[in-house]
Design goal:
Distance between the termini: 9 Å
Oligomer: single chain
Largest sheet: 8 strands, mixed
Strand order of the largest sheet: 5-4-3-2-1-6-8-7
Number of helices: 15
Helix content: 25-40%
Radius of gyration: 21 Å
Length: about 400
């Protein structure tokens, strides 16, 4: 069976086509600047690569182009019948903590939570509906990001609001980046030569969007993001955890509407908000190292939050075998990793600075004396989506 995994942005579309018998990638590609006069296309299939610039009026035209590139007598798919499903790394929906066929009920659940994931849900809903109109015979299936976190115990996902309101509106800790943390739960301990089914892992998915996860024997025990992707760690431009009365206070004192406060917290906060508007995380790192005080404060605040979660999850797991770094910051930033790990020696987490500075790809970067292995690994969310969608379709 072949599974097409779609990665959707507001003006971009990326995909990977998997043969699930071998888990081989048969084709991959991306289209950027959809809806603009010059959409950039890069598609690899059958050992050939296509790069060109085309104008698409919208998502449906771009998706039809991709289908035409993949299906035909001389293409990677001889006919659409070879395609078992189109899989999506869907983000959020009311009560959605599993992998689901994307029918009207599930799409409505995603619509219900657009306010909580405004950067993610609208483009995904648009892309899903486009695929359903173009290839109605192919099921669309979504692996919701909270799915991996459904093993979190009730006392860890329950909030402090009145129980009746919590139940009425399906308010709870959902958690996100589930596909990434699921992959890390198996791959990171294996990479560190530890049995993943008998391992305590603290997964640090760090980048423009960041979250952490406490994993025990392959299952999520707790995670940093809660009811929405705006919670938990600082993100590139999202605020992360706040005293709940801060937005209420701002709404009152600045005479802001609910939507204006939401926009402030999700697009003007985080690392960018502290550093002065720069949304490029690696540039913030360079500015911090060059002595820019606000960039330095942003970096230190971010790393401090990560460090506090490591300490908390060490307690949740009653120890730790592996601390895993992945994502744009986790994989590429030695200064961030150093700032995070400094002071964690009391937990048996000892960073080898020389190994940390010389990372090129994946590596173990802990000292030989460290009780906890520290690893830098690359995540593979698309493969996890393909596997879970395959299970549903079968």
């Amino acid at each position: 069976m072949k599974i097409l995994v779609a990665n959707v942005g507001s003006t971009s579309f990326k995909f990977k086509l998997f043969d699930m018998e071998t888990e081989e990638i048969l084709a991959s590609g991306k289209i950027e600047n959809i809806g603009y006069s010059e959409s950039k296309i890069a598609i690899q299939a059958l050992n050939s690569e296509q790069k060109k610039t085309v104008s698409f009026n919208g998502y449906t035209d771009a998706l039809q182009y991709c289908i035409d590139c993949l299906v035909g007598d001389d293409k990677v798919l001889k006919s659409l019948s070879e395609l078992g499903a189109i899989g999506f790394k869907t983000v959020h929906g009311k009560g959605m903590i599993e992998c689901r066929v994307l029918d009207d009920e599930v799409l409505q659940a995603m619509e219900d939570y657009v306010f909580l994931a405004p950067a993610h849900n609208p483009p995904y809903i648009n892309a899903i509906k486009s695929f359903q109109s173009l290839v109605p015979e192919i099921p669309c299936v979504g692996l919701f990001e909270p799915a991996f976190h459904k093993t979190i115990p009730d006392y860890a996902y329950t909030t402090g609001i009145p129980y009746e309101l919590e139940q009425k509106h399906s308010i709870r800790k959902y958690g996100f980046h589930g596909a990434s943390h699921r992959f890390i739960s198996q791959y990171a301990p294996t990479f560190a030569e530890i049995d993943p089914n008998d391992a305590k892992v603290i997964s640090c998915h760090l980048g423009g969007s960041s979250s952490m996860c406490a994993i025990k024997n392959g299952e999520s025990m707790d995670t940093s993001m809660s009811f929405s992707p705006q919670s938990g760690l600082l993100n590139a431009n999202r605020c992360g955890d706040l005293d709940p009365f801060i937005p209420l206070f701002l709404q009152k004192e600045e005479n802001l509407s609910v939507d204006e406060v939401a926009e402030l917290l999700q697009s003007q906060g985080g690392l960018s908000g502290i550093a002065g508007g720069n949304k490029d995380v690696l540039q913030i790192e360079l500015d911090a190292l060059a002595g820019d005080n606000r960039a330095k404060l942003a970096m230190q605040t971010y790393c401090y939050r990560v460090k506090t979660y490591i300490g908390a999850y060490y307690a949740v797991l009653s120890g730790c075998d592996v601390v895993s770094f992945t994502g744009g910051i986790g994989e590429k930033s030695a200064p961030f990793r150093k700032e995070i790990c400094t002071g964690l020696e009391c937990l048996g987490i000892e960073l080898d600075e020389e190994l940390n500075n010389s990372v090129n790809g994946e590596a173990v970067i802990s000292k030989s004396s460290s009780k906890v292995k520290i690893v830098v690994v690359e995540t593979n969310e698309e493969l996890v989506v393909a596997r879970e969608v395959y299970k549903v379709v079968k």
